[in-house]
Design brief:
Blueprint (H helix, E strand, L loop, with lengths): L1 H19 L5 E9 L6 H12 L9 E7 L2 E4 L5 E3 H4 L11 E5 L3 E8 L1
Parallel strand pairs: 1-2
Antiparallel strand pairs: 1-6, 3-4, 3-5
Helix pairs in contact: 1-2
Bound molecules: zinc ion (ZN).
The site of zinc ion (ZN) has 8 residues, from loops.
């Protein structure tokens, strides 16, 4: 399952940061999750709840997901638009010369400790 892999990746990162800072227990992890990251939030939560119980440092740790809306930038008319609504074609000028500005991230925003 894709989400489980993401959870293990997050846990590894959180543990590394916690160890570097001498933290004993992490109570909350705030995650930036892009709208087009292909990660399903409720599945991520399910995997998270299962995985953190296997880690002493993260027992009962809450995963707080911050959704990041996907935005695409058009190189032709230099405007931004909502990726999920319009896809790769710019709704302002019809150009396909576009790229994703944000919305693909799966990043730890911050962690809270006891
Ligand atoms: Zn355009």
């Amino acid at each position: 399952m894709h989400e489980l892999g993401v959870v293990f990746y997050i846990i590894k990162d959180v543990k590394k940061v916690a160890e570097q800072n001498g933290v004993q227990h992490v109570s909350k992890v705030i995650l930036d999750l892009g709208e087009v990251s292909m990660v399903v939030p409720y599945q991520l939560q399910d995997c998270w709840k299962w995985a953190v119980q296997r880690e002493e440092m993260l027992s009962n740790c809450i995963l707080d997901i911050h959704p990041i809306p996907a935005v695409t930038f058009c190189e032709s008319c230099h405007q931004e638009y909502a990726t999920v609504t319009y896809g790769k074609i710019c709704p302002h000028c019809g150009s396909a010369d576009t790229y994703l500005v944000r919305g693909n991230e799966v990043e730890i925003h911050s962690i809270e400790v006891d």
